[in-house]
Specification:
With about 200 residues, the chain is α+β, with helices and mostly antiparallel strands. It has one domain: Sandwich (Jelly Rolls), CATH 2.60.120.10. The chain contains four helices and 13 strands. The strands form three sheets. It has a six-stranded antiparallel sheet, with helices on one face. A five-stranded antiparallel sheet has the order 9-8-11-6-13, with no helix packed on it. Strand 1 and strand 2 form a beta hairpin. The two termini are about 25 Å apart.
Amino acid sequence: MKATELGIDGAWLFEPTTFPDDRGSFTAPFQGPAFRAALGFDLQVAQTNQSVSRRGVIRGVHFADVPPGQAKYLYVAAGAVRDVVVDLRVGSPTFGRHEVVELDAAHPRAVYLAEGLGHAFQALTDRAVVGYLCSTPYDPAAEHGVSPLDPDLALPWAEGLEPVLSAKDRDAVTVAHALDTGLLPTRKACDARYAQLRAGG
């Protein structure tokens, strides 16, 4: 499995090998040894999620309080999505920047995002199935979001595709509002969490 760090520290792209034959194909989207070799610690999986979205649906931009935060490792099991990672860590040199990766089931790849990074995606096909490995259980009190349509973020959603959002995501605050109200995680808190993970905590 090939692992490549993206332009935002803590965001990684994993590219597993797919084995096709006359029956179909086989892929291992997550491989513990490859993950540990790239990041220096094991991914602790506390919860797995799966979402099914119709074309145009945008989910996110979501993030969680740090500590402990919630790291995510995700891949597409069916269909295709435009996946977006946003640096929401106050004090980070790449604060406000985003990385975009096209994920699809035909050419399996996976994205990992560390605690403190925001995540969103848009379904590009009529049925897009996304699987997530999450480092901590879902905690509604610690889960937050910023608007995926915030003009200050200027996220590159697919042209000609009408965005479909939940009420929660549609009503999410801007990054500027989240920053002013102290909602966003700090890079200092995130770095402390990363050091704890590397130390085996």
